[in-house]
Amino acid sequence: MNYAKFNRQIKLPGFGLLQQKKLFEAKVLLIGAGGLGCPALLYLAAAGVGQIGVVDFDTVEESNLARQILFDANDIGQLKAQIACTKIQQAFPDSTLTPFTFKLDESTIEITNDFDLVIDGSDNFETRYLLNDYCAAQNTPLIYGSVSRYEGQVGVFNVETESGQKFNLRDIFPIEPKSGMVENCAEAGVLGVVAGLIGILQATEAIKLITGLGSNLNQEMLTYNALSNQFYSVQITPKSKSIIHSEPKTIEDFRSELEEIDYKLIALLEERNELIKKIAKVKKESNMEIVQAQQWEKTMAKKLIELEKLSLNKEFVLDIFNRIHQESIAEQKKYYGNN
After folding, report:
1. Which CATH number covers residue 319?
2. Can you list the alpha helix ranges (DSSP code H) found in 119-191?
């Protein structure tokens, strides 16, 4: 290994040849060579990680080029994992790159057993939850990342905290969303630089985890919002044991899950109410009418489209939203009267 190449980071306080050797001996598996995976892969190899595997069965498309920085127009139609590994291997010959051009599913998930830690750069809930549950069961460190529109999240799972606890994705989002409930990047859009930043943060957490430097995001989910220029974190509390290892066995288990969902609904309604107050302030300052009938019709039309994808009773859900809307109008009138 050419240590001179890594001279600048070896000189860092707390770093040194020992930490560089740990990086070279590390084996990291990257799931997805997309908007998150490309920058993560680049900086892992640049830091001197010795063995890196890349799992991705997809091919490069033109719409990928704005955020998946390892690819160019000449790569369109070719396998992402193969192209990414070839380019990184040429740039960083000290690292060994291995492409896996299959889909990660229940028949291939055991590939994670051959690596020290896994980075999740996937773009769908099915893969995320499969990967999360398997790594949690195997106690494999998993570095989570996700992006949507102008926002991204990073977390470190299955790494013991000072209190001896370990957390995973189901401690934050216990139930995997049904297909179609949440828009993916292709539907909602994503700002390329946000994906780049989150991918780099994932690589940073991996480097810290391997070298033992600093603290990890193993008890919190870090969120970045590009529009507000803000980073904020949410502390994680354990909720996942029964969900990962077994289905609820008693009616009390089901009731406990229902209570948790109801609590979240109440919290979301409170959060929505605070947004309504901010909207009322803007409307009053702009001399706008409280009731914006045309805007509400557009909003309800979008909700109807989403409801077509679900098994919920349409009239029931629309009635709930209409009641919420009436309460929102009452809250805005109250604001107008008090200010």
Report:
1. 1.20.59.10
2. 125-138, 185-188
What is the phi-psi region of residue 199: left when phi exceeds 0, alpha when psi lies from -120 to 50, beta otherwise?
Answer: alpha
**Is there a contact between 28 and 117 (Cβ–Cβ < 8 Å)?**
yes
Among the candidates 199, 217, 245, a domain finishes at 245
Cβ atoms of residues 18 and 63 within 8 Å: no
Report the chain's mean pLDDT, rounded to a whole number: 88
CATH number at residue 205: 3.40.50.720
Structure-token pair, residue 142: 């998993």
Pair (85, 226) in one structural domain: yes
Tokens (6 digits) for 260: 């948790």
Q: At what angle do helices 192-211 and 17-25 cross, to 10 degrees?
A: 110
Q: Which of 214, 245, 276 is the last residue of a domain?
A: 245
The predicted structure's pLDDT at residue 83: 97
**Residue 164 CA neighbour count, 13 Å, CB half:** 0
Q: Domain span at residue 308? A: 251-338
Q: Which residue in the block uniquely carries the two structure tokens 């063995």? A: 51
**Interval 213-226 mean pLDDT:** 92
The two counts, helices (H) then strands (E), for the chain are: 11, 8
Angle at 160 between CA 157 and CA 166, to 5 degrees: 55
What region does 116 belong to: left with phi over 0, alpha with psi -120 to 50, or beta?
alpha
Same domain, 170 and 299: no
Measured CA to CA, the distance from residue 102 to residue 17 in angstroms comes to: 36
**Model confidence, pTM:** 0.71
Q: Which pair of tokens denotes residue 245?
A: 């290892």
